[in-house]
Structures are given as C-alpha cells and as structure tokens.
Sequence to fold (337 residues):
Amino acid sequence: MDRRGFSNRLGLRWARLIPLLALSGCSTRAFWLFHPRGAVAAAEFHVMLLDVGIMLAIVLTAGLMALVFLYRYRKPRRQAYDPTFVKSNRIEVLVWGVPLLTVGVLAYFSYQAVFATNPYHPKAITRYEKTEARKGMAVGPAGALRPAITVPGKKPVHVDVITTDWQWLFIYPHRHIASLNKLVVPVGTPVDFRLTSATVVNDFFIPKLVGEIDVMPGMRTKQAMIVSKPGVYSGYSADYSGGGFSWMEFVTKVVTAGQYRRWTHRMAHARRSLTDTTFNRIAAPTINLAHTPKAFAHVQPGLFRHVVQRVMQGKVYATPTAMTENMKKPRGVRVIH
Fold:
C-alpha cells in the first residue's frame, strides 16, 4: 500500500469516531455521582476526576505514541539502523521517570482522600464548615454579613441505622423517634451515623451525599456526612442481600432547620411506638414494593445495642420460600433524581 492509500485509510478510521461527539450533549442527570451535594461525596468525586484524568493522560499519550511509531516506522519507509546503539538517557528518563511521577502524584491524592472521606472522622466536613464560616464573614453589597449555611462546631445529628430484609430503619436516639424507609436531616448540619444489620451484610449508599459503607450483622460501623443543598435524594443498598434487594431503597430528605424541627415534633406525636416487639415485626422479611415509610415515637432506649447483641447470640429472621418464588413485577417503583 502506498503512502497516500495508508493516509486515506487512517483518516477514514478517525472519521468513524466523529458521531461520538454527539454524545457530548447528553444529560448527566441520571449519573448521581456526577452531581454531589454533600461534602464527602464532593471529595470522592474530586479524587475520582483526578485519578481518571491522570490515567487518561497516560493512556491517550501511549495510544498517540503507538500511532506515531506505526506511521513513522512502517515497512515501506527505510529508517537508519545504528548497530552501536546501547542506551538513551532520554528514553530511560521517560520509561522510569513518568511512572514514578505518576505513582507519586496518585499516592499523594489518595493519601488526602483517605482522610477526607474517613467514615469515622471525615476531614471533608471540617473543611466544608470552615469554608462556610469564611463565606459567612464576607461583606455583601449593602455592607451586611451573609449568613453562613454551616456554623463550625454545630452539634451534629445522630442517627442509628438498622437494616433488615429488606428495609431501612432510622432511629434518632436523642429525640426518641424513628422512621422506616425515610431519612430526614437538616441542611448544613453534620450527621453522624451508627450502622448495623439485623440479618445479612448490606451497603449504605446515598450517591449524591456520601459514599457507600458496609453494614454488617452483629457489628457497628460509622459514617458521617453534611449536605449543602436541600432536596430529595435516593439511597439504597449496594450489596446484594436476597430476593427483595432490588427494592431496598429509602428516601433522603434534606430540609431547613425550621422544617427539621417541625418534622421531629410531628414524629414525636406518632401513633406507633418502637419497642423490641415492634422491631421483630419490622425485621421479619418484607419486600416493600411501594417504599412506604412509617413513623415511630417513644423508641425503646438502647434498641440499637440490643439488636447488635441479639444478632451476636444467633438471632435469625428466616425468609419464607414462597416470598421469593411468588414475586411479581413491582407496582409504582419510584426513581428519585
């Protein structure tokens, strides 16, 4: 093949990629990880972009060099051959220096990310609070101070999370209330989670707000988050746990401080009480196709710890075989963006 034919063929191959440019206008709304609304999720997204960008730079450069070498050293073209060639300092620097530099950069950002997203003490929340405090001291056009969303040192909201087959129970121990399949938290306030499972391992995951973490039976794990924008977000289990796993979702509502106070007041007057007996009924395998939330008041003190101890003693909630055999297409499954 002559040089002209090779060029035309190479150009035709690249032309086939032009339609892919049309994808640049596609919406990313369904890609929850691309739209973080929490400090921890934003830190994870930032590190992901850095990792992907660095690796793409390496992969694209290597691909481009491969094309250049194929073209430059193609068979019809004669290149000078030097039988005395032994070593090139430039090649040595590229072959060893670039990988070492890449590993060093990735290690640095990974080190920062580990502490920024540490579930037991995420520094991303501390940085967010300090940033909001500085914004709050900014003088506006009229000379007034703009109120900050977050006040550093604000008392966090504590939530105990217990997973069952296949529902989510959220207990607010300081207010003695609980909510089933619905999490409500105030905007701009740190939220500390204690998590355990009454059955099998699940993964607590709210893509726009906080990364996933294992929720294990008979054990206690922690997670923390702070949300910068009110709204309704989707949370679910990211670990397969049986027949009802596909519908094991929960709604996360982030509201203002005033709305949160009113919500807790209404919850405190709920008709249902959450006792050990009530929890046993909740923990029985249930496929909640409609994602129906329930409210509970007068939560039994120490229920979270009691669930952990009972699982360690061998408590099991058996799943009836007919429950999974007779499953049909769910009615009214909601998708929250």
